[in-house]
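ingest -> validate -> predict -> emit
validate: passed (alphabet ok, no gaps, 697 aa)
predict: started
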Amino acid sequence: MRVACGIHCGDIERTIETYELMSQKYFTHATPTLFNSGTPRPQMSSCFLLTMQEDSIDGIFSTLKQCALISKTAGGVGLAVTDIRATNSYIRGTNGYSNGLLPMLRVFNDAARYVDQGGGKRKGSVAVYLEPWHYDVFDFIDIKKNHGKEERRARDLFCALWIPDLFMERVNDNAGWTLMCPNECPGLTDVWGDEFKELYERYESEGRGRKTIPAQQLWFAILQAQIETGTPYMVYKDACNRKSNQQNLGTIKCSNLCTEIVEYTSKDEVAVCNLASVSLSKFVKDDGESRSFDFEGLKRVVKVMTRNLNKVIDRNFYPIPEARNSNLRHRPVGLGVQGLADAFMMLRFPFDSQEAKELNRNIFECIYYAALEASCELAAKEGPYATYEGSPVSKGILQFDMWGVTPASGLCDWAALRAKIKEHGVRNSLLVSPMPTASTSQILGNNEAFEPYTSNIYYRRVLSGEFFVVNPHLLRDLLARDLWTEEVKQQLIAHNGSVQNIDSVPDDLKALYKTVWEIKQRVIIDLAIDRSPYIDQSHSLNIHMVNPTYAKLSTMHFYGWRGGLKTGLYYLRTQAAADAIKFTVDSSVAFCAKATPSRCPRSSSLPSVSVVDGNEGSSGVGGYSKEGGGDASPGEPSSGHESRRAEGASETNGVQRQDEQPHPGQSGSGRDGQDAATVCRWRRKGAEEEPCEMCSG
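emit:
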């Protein structure tokens, strides 16, 4: 009730409407809104995006102050740092030379540790974005590693790459890549697409670059960092700008802390986004004979959420004036989801089924439609947002038009909505941005966002302690079939939450209750590509791999990039290389679990099979092949080298823990250093080995 009253301030009808829907768990606002709505300083925004004020002492510390003030009021920060001059760049004012990016990042790292979100409620969080042509990029991607000199690390920051298409093309072609200093090669951050390519190649031809390296050397260094730490994030600069409704404002230079917000920033504008997520499981209807999804109910709730978030823009307390300036001019909001996996399970759709694929697309079409319709209705009353003219929507171009997609579900009357928008415009420049929902999904009892379950049994660690969780849908099905026994429970724990090797579990339940480790990651990426034409910002896409290799990661990255994704990777999640001892599990059950492991051993004797542009073949980077047994590519460590990840979710009695908050620590340890021709063995069919279905990218 406090949240509803704080948002609507005297509008009794809207207050009651919001209260009833939130109390019935149809949707929830983001954590800062829940913290601060109805308080004397209602800072309800989740995300703030900044660029460096200037490449100078004044500019750097002015930006640092902005970050501190935002973090103080529970905001997460995304910061573009590409314009900071590189190491050994000349400083005219002092006749000296710059120390580069890393010392500055350590200052921001310490500020994030000191200024927590909302006075001890959540740790301060800053994601820093860098374009891969910056001369200090190799140091940048290593800032979270657990080895190396401490003065070269900034482990409390989240590092992200803002990647132009040209870099991906150079990697694919095994071409050279020139590293530059933004002080010596200005303007690259202000252009994208063909303009960026033209300017970058002009600087190359003029010899203004610092160093030219094989593009794959940097690529393998990025993959190495991802295997060790789960980062850097991968966000594609050209896709974000090409498919943005804010492209009329200027070049977008970064995303946010969780890679789902894509908004314009400048010296006098700090982009802001207010978030809310809808509980998809609430719209599964069961009449006893059949189950269906209530799309009309979803539209009604999304329209309420859109009106609420639009109101939050006006009621909000802004920690800095640049944030107010941006938010009142462009009025972006961020609608997300939670419980997509729950909805699939309730409808009896395996996550990798065709039915799930169709429902995923239809859900996001309805969300985008309802949000646009609500925003258009608001514009009819209050007028369009200030910078509406010149935007793609003002020209009749919607998000799916930028993808070359025509909605064919028949669930939405797009022609009628286009006519309304042409007449009235829209009140909000951006609308849909599925976020991680790591905290709020616990309030509503859903699985996070649009992700599959990571395990069917685990410990959940939250601020108030930890508790034991069993997948409620699996538990319900096992109880209904009289299969939930002490032995099944122990087997579930012994197999790390997987039902695939429990003989008493029927095949239909094994298909329905696959964990994310047992679903091909191509399925996850395909679902992301399918929903993206209805997401006008981006979404926080995690990738899970049991045993990540350069081959799998390269195939995955290029598949998502070619599919047009804006966010290619939020975190890379991996499993632990070894299981903790399970003291509470019967020794005979534990022995059987070891005999039939829920994840496969690896073999280095077979070439891996990957799919690039729909073709199978020897896996390499992008479209090039790499022969097994040959020399390692530039920057790739020799085969057999191992590194262990120290960060991550621990285990208690062998049961996986999950953090409540989106945290950089990855579960367990990854193994890098495999040759690109290495592949897991999982099973033998006849005389032929088949690639691992769990780990194949």
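Confidence is low (pLDDT under 50) at residues 598-620, 622-697.
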